[in-house]
Specification:
five-stranded antiparallel beta sheet; 10 strands; rod-shaped
């Protein structure tokens, strides 16, 4: 009888241990599930749209009325102080060509290049030079013998006096040929063409045509 009671007590103790073990396992599992549910999520996003800008330069022969002359066929006709049809030995004539950026446009740098002269041969005898000059109170008067002579600093000389008509401008001067964005400033190129005193009789009646290009590069 005593043995029977002892065995029953042993069975109860074993059953109690198993229940506690199961409960303990359940508690561990329950904690793991709770931690997984607590892992909340959130995100941040960023995006942008890009549009290319524009670079556009325009020119004027009077220092004030600017428009586009984008091809040699649409070149602006320079207005020389002395009519090119009346040149004699010792004559120098001046013409203005002003350049700036359009609005809107990015900023940029400029460089003058010379085309191949046409006509019947007068280019052989002519020489020229180009200088940057300030804008006068009356823009059309920015390029004269006086303003050309005053702009003698190294930063102003684009083409040296006495150059052949085929010579282009320097890519850089001590002051870069920079035009600001959106028409913020203008550069005035004063072109001086000379028929030297040494021109021989054979130059009489000859003609010359020339096209200069101001090439702009965005910066």
């Amino acid at each position: 009888m005593a043995d029977t009671r002892r065995r029953m007590r042993e069975r109860k103790r074993l059953r109690s241990r198993r229940i506690r073990a199961v409960l303990a396992g359940g508690l561990v599992f329950g904690v793991g599930a709770t931690m997984t549910l607590a892992a909340w999520n959130d995100s941040e996003y960023a995006s942008s749209t890009f549009t290319a800008g524009r670079f556009d330069i325009v020119g004027a022969t009077d220092g004030a009325t600017f428009s586009s002359h984008a091809t040699a066929g649409a070149a602006a006709a320079l207005s020389f102080a002395v009519a090119p049809t009346a040149m004699v030995p010792g004559t120098t004539t001046y013409a203005l060509f002003s350049v700036k950026t359009a609005n809107p446009s990015a900023a940029g740098t400029l460089q003058l290049t010379a085309g191949t002269p046409g006509g019947t041969g007068l280019a052989t005898y002519l020489t020229y030079g180009v200088r940057l000059v300030p804008t006068a109170a009356t823009p059309s008067q920015s390029c004269t013998a006086a303003t050309y002579g005053a702009a003698s600093g190294a930063s102003s000389v684009i083409v040296a006096d006495g150059s052949a008509l085929t010579v282009g401008g320097a890519a850089t001067t001590s002051v870069p040929q920079v035009v600001a964005a959106n028409g913020g400033n203008q550069l005035n190129y004063c072109v001086a063409v000379t028929l030297p005193t040494t021109a021989v009789n054979a130059a009489q009646g000859l003609t010359m045509t020339q096209t200069w290009q101001i090439q702009g590069t965005s910066s």
